[in-house]
Structures
1.
Amino acid sequence: MAEIVLTNTGRDAFLEANPEFRGPGAVRAVDAVLGLLALHGADRASGVPEPTPDLARRLLVEDLPSFVWADPAELTVYPAVLRALARRFDGADRTGVEEAVDQSTADFERAMTDPGNLTWPRWYARLLRAEGVDADDPGAVRAWLARLSRVPVPDGARRADLAGRTAVADVLLAEVLTRAYVRDAEASPAAGPLLADHDVARGIGAVAHALLGRWTAAGLPEGLAGPYAYLAPGPEDLPHLALADALLGEHLDYYGDIAVPLPPPALCFTDSEGPEGPERSEEPEGEPGEAGNAGGTRAVAEGAADPSAPAVPGADARTERDADLLATAVDALTGTDPAPDAGPYGGEAAHLVYTLYQRGCSAESVARRAAEFEDWTVDPALEDAPVRVPLPGSPAYTTPTAGELARLLGTPGVGDADRARLDGPARALATVVDRLAATGLVFRRGDAFGLGPRGCAAVRHMLAIRGVVVPGPGETDGWDAAPLVAAAAVWPPAAARRVLRDWLRAHGDGDVAWSALLGAIGSVNRGTSDAAATRGLLDVLDLSAAPAGVLRGLLAHPVVGARAEETLRRSGEPVAPGEVPAEARALRVLDALPGKKGPLESRRTAFDTAAAAWPGGAAALVAAMNAADPHETARVLTPLGVSVS
């Protein structure tokens, strides 16, 4: 079929009239350009498809980077073919096409060399050419495929990336072929139909494979769809993609923006001492469908190595398998036929996995999470607080004592009756956690549960697949202060504290580092509804560790000034009256008010007490707060019945 379909595009006549396009790469370029133009409906009345500016742009920046592989030295041929076609026509059409080609050539070259545009056929065509395999010899191509036992993955990419891109490219080419067949069937062109009935009868997929073989390597697409399909897994072969979608949904529910980074993980355990489940086994040789080495082809590591896992051969394939394992466990709890013991919280499995990572992979409390699911009141300051992981003990779950529950929830007065009421939900949630822990990727010790190192790596892998920014341990140390502060402002306080502390240490923990960090906290998001959350980072930092000279230099700062004054006074440093602006003092009062915790009456009392000590009373204090941060002023004071207008 490869030599049958699209034989009436004028290719042979064009090659005869343009002898400069005679090499194998040039012939492939002519075939692809003429074929795609014709499939898109270009006029063939002159014997060859007539390009338009829009079609020329589409071919260069969309179609060719999806369906064709060309060595870097061959890239210039494709725009040259379009220019040669344009020269066959006169007037504005020729000028427009030439201008479109000139404007799109740089984008075309970038797209053709962008790893993000690689499909399985394009990737393997690149590899086999690099090894000197004759891309026009289907026997040589098949023999090369047969020597591969594992999936080599390009540097900086994942199998899921190529699987997704290939699936999209397959759909796009099938649509182009289908439209071309229908168009010719409705009005047969004088130049003849592009696809005969007997071609289409074998299936659009077979036609697409035939064309892709001409444009990448002979027989390659058919091989990857047939006996060597394990070398080109599709989305359906990667179960963890479904969980990756669910994790992306959780991220958007939390932050509303895929670009919001998550904190780098700080694992509680090492591989040797943590509750990881079974010991890792050595990577089996020759198992189909894994990143590795075969037939002299180098399997390039899948993205940056995760420092939480040892750098051993096959580590990336192992992470992918772990992701599949975790996804299968989640599906067993949340799918159409959930496990009998999934209980009322089985549907929360994906949410639990996400929040464990979102906490920076710190351990969580089963009882506290069950209390939240049951709408119990939990102190906002403790919602994301890490919990201590006890030594291994009985695998049976026991709800914490009433006193421990009071500490976990930040709710004094929790008694035995409350503990008894929470016992059922906590045990039901522990059952779900234990189902996840059976994978060896999640652990539970007593009331504490979390992600082990492998589980953390697997979740990070899935989030990265869907484009969430997931820096690895230590990566944020290289960030500038402003983007670090913008990210940390929405992280759980414990994770933000750890990352900011590490950043300061990495930058010398001196005047320069502290000035940059505190300056960013005082400027990032200022004047927006996120300003208060950003100022909240002042509470997670140990300001007593800041150099006194830096704090003194910030006394006049409208955001940080009052906090700098407090810290200096606590250390015995004098601060002259009037050095701190009223705006900064008003913000300090506003941020100290209980905006969420406690009954409205006690919160109103806190405001009245602060207003009584403010020069000019409540009206003056509200005015100063409004001037400093109207968004937080309205959020905190309006529920208290205080007029903020």
2.
Amino acid sequence: MNHLALIGPPDAVASRIAAMQGVYRIGKGDLAGVARSFEPGDERRRQNLLAWFERGAEPGATLLVDDWKYCAENDPGLADSVRWIAARVWNVRVIITARSVDELPERVPVRIEVLDFLALHGLRRFTKALAWKGRWWKVPVGVGSDGRPVVVELTHFADGKWRTGSHLSVTTPEAFRSLVLGLMTTHSPKLFQAVFIDAHDTGAFAGLDQAPHVQAHHRDAARDPARIAEALLAESERRLEIVGNTWTIFDHRGFDLVLPQLLICVSGFAELEATELGAALVTIAQDVGQSGMQLLLDSPHDVADLLIDDCVAPANLDEVAESLPRSMLQEEPAPDFFALHDVPNKHVWRPRPVKLQYRVAVGVDEYGQRVEIDLKSKHLQDGMGPHGEVTAPEKRRAEGIRAVVLGQMLRHSPDELQVVLIDFHGNGMFAGLDGAPHVRHGLVDLLEDHEQRLRKLVDSGNYRNIWDYRAAGLGPLPELLVCVDGVQGLVRERPEFLKVLQTLSRDGRTYGQHLLLSDTTPSELEGVHTSYRLELTDEGWTRRIGRSVESVVLPTDLHDVVWSLPVAMANS
């Protein structure tokens, strides 16, 4: 194929086209070595150049569209013109450059050449916060003989219904390394881990074994295959016990428990196949749907249901394989509040899909990934609530409360969320928050609020819960977040308040009433149950949901935001 798409950063692209002759460029600024360069915004000259190429230009001329995304934004008809030139004008060449494969125009017959590994994955640079967003479905590994990207499908549907993992085999070392590094680049160690097995210590995993995803690296495995087989079978049994009767590991995953996919990467499988390790791998392969343990073999085998096509890996794969895994070990600074929520320096009260409603980040984990709290009921809307608590010493408790409440206020208007603040000790735990328009001031009768919500659902059509009521389009009925600090002392001094908490605890998920209890130690009040906890430990903040314990780093600017954001919302 004569036409070409170059994927990579500007410096790599410039080096690739430096020696080409007769290049006429549409792009921003100047590029050394081209015959003429035209700014995308210069419509008259750009259109004259395209018309010249449509008429045939001069034999051997090359039309270079440098940074397709930028150029196409300035000319909505550019794709049609380039598509026509590439298909109809036989004596000229078209070259397109882009920062990632998904920026390329559709139906333009170009051969793709990936100059940069990160660009293959749609990344301009690697940071854990930006890159580790992958889903365990597909990963690109290179470019095939047809000039198109080769994308590995890591899962398939068993019986057309249940998603399960695929076992993979690959015949080229470059594709092998590209796949493993691609998974490391796009998935945090909480979602993906690897076991490396090298039959004869060939260095097949050099560089890759420095990544935090690597659970074990078995060198010269042919010497003691039985020991490795025993360890892998034990891991399989452990995982099957955790998953239990769930159909697949993908169905098992939730906020309260996540097992990472475990890719067993085998170099030299042909020499291990007849050993105890080979037999163990075949056994493990049978339970992939539940255990989440998948095989990546360097030679075809009946157990590997997907053979990865031969492909050309990104040009800088070896260089990146040495440097990128080490960079994954480096700490990254915690984001500030607005960066955490991926919004500008103001509140964002826009409608959100039901799945995302009342679900906001409170901080990031040790891998820079957002840790969220979802007020919705776990049983009704696949959330974490309806009730939670913040546990910390008095001087630090406000941090956790602010992380939870400010995020909810940022995303939800007063028509969607109202807040009641009860500070038993009067220590100013809610200072700043009380200036937000979401806060209901004065004496609030929570049981009366409960009865009003019940009557509204019944009188409007006997709706089962607040979510059915809202889905019917009957107008706003905001969720109510009741924050009680010093809850244990409050109940000791006023035992009658326990009945209020018990009523909301029991029926809150139905009527949209949520408790956020805070104190020095976890509350153990009779009949009051919480689903999640934000807790300060000796190692830092953690989010606890069932058996899941996630470390959390809170935004460092919560003190400033709590005094500015509520005021800005009240004045808007």
3.
Amino acid sequence: MAYDADVIVIGAGLAGLAATAELVDAGRKVILLEQEPEQSMGGQAFWSFGGLFFVDSPEQRRLRIRDSHALALQDWMGTAAFDRPEDHWPRKWAEAYVDFAAGEKRAWLHGQGMRFFPVVGWAERGGYDATGHGNSVPRFHITWGTGPGVIEPFVRRVRAGVARGLVELKFRHRVTGLARSAGAVDTVTGEVLEPSDVERGKASTRTVTGAFEYRAQAVIVTSGGIGGNHELVRANWPERLGTPPERMVAGVPAHVDGKLLGIAEKAGARLINRDRMWHYTEGLHNWNPVWDNHGIRILPGPSSLWLDARGRRLPVPLFPGFDTLGTLEHIMRTGYDHTWFVLDQKIIGKEFALSGSEQNPDLTGKSVRDVIGRARADVPGPVKAFMDNGADFVVEKDLGALVRGMNALAGEPLIDEGALRREIVARDREIVNPFTKDLQVTAIRGARRFIGDRLIRTAAPHRILDPKAGPLIAVRLNILTRKTLGGLETDLSSRVLTEGGDALAGVYAAGEAAGFGGGGVHGYRSLEGTFLGGCLFSGRTAGRAAAKAVG
């Protein structure tokens, strides 16, 4: 029986596009299968802030950031904390990825036309010792054009492959099975779904209109993770993170359901580290949702006072932006699944950014004028829209009214005004000197020594209860599902492995389906605060390896 293509790629997200682009460059014929409509091409990367992890970049050097491969590898390994026998390949992938980030990654992307915002951000600051979790220096590079700017070169390369007759795009094709003949997995079967003209990100229909079966010499799985399937998230929730939350907002649409991981596993693939996951603690209900239960993440500066559901301050070093999973673990042991930021307008105007291409129209639209306008505004437009319309915001002139609003939003009187006032007044007393015993205030002053934070990310230290800085603001923070850190185990050629450690003949995996490489390149935590780089690196690797194998 003849082959329909050299390679079948399952999933038209960033990893699938990167793999397909590399196959096109090698002259291979590809069928790209995607269950969603064509308008959703690029997957979740389209909605991203466009953050990329570079090491010792020109942007860093211009800001006098001294970074190095050795420092980045120290940070990565301290963050990942690999400690399992199955971490052999994830560790190898981590070493290779840091090499890539410190080497050709930026030049490779720059050569395809991508450009980067000159101010480097600082994700996952850590707050422990030098060998522990966190970035020692800022490494979060925002793509000019955000998520759409990240996917554009790869969409362009794939469509060029279509024009050359090398790529067939098969949207509304949902894979339900992988099968083998002659010892290798070479057959992909599934259902054809009815056409859908829904907007990108909206739920498409699941009405089946037919079936398909395609054969190729190799199959690359780039189907994503489980973040849209909250039942599966809870089922895999690790004991170390406490009780799974009853209530979560969705950082990805419901079709990110993990079903293809089970299909691959049934075909003989090994799925590892399924209890490792990455969910954010600063989620908001989107007042203008794209998908059901749509959550948006706050990218906070370091100044907001972070309180648990009862109004108690979170312990050191669980400050905004320092340790996502450490904070999540603490929250889930409090008996509640929400927390609060308490701040003022001066802080929100300087420090709040919202993750997502649609929440950053200035950067997404590549408008220098609008970026300057955002920097000059008291509160950026997208943030102001949440203040005015968001279900999680309380804005008041005095603390008593703020607390009453917080308790009303929570549905029970969990926060005592007197106790919270004492906490804030005590913190405000620490502001009057350039030195303090309050480590969050120390962190704020330390952040402002970096010019990028001082310019656009960290407010000058001041008293939260100063009327001139008001009004006061409380933000209810929800658990926001995001990424699967485990996945299909792969070697350094992206070949999927079996339980016995052998390659599952004909099958490759990349992106979130492969834990962004090896079945879990991030280990327990994501140092990057972004997952685009892992999709690009593993997708490129899978595409090149499959192209060579079928050549």
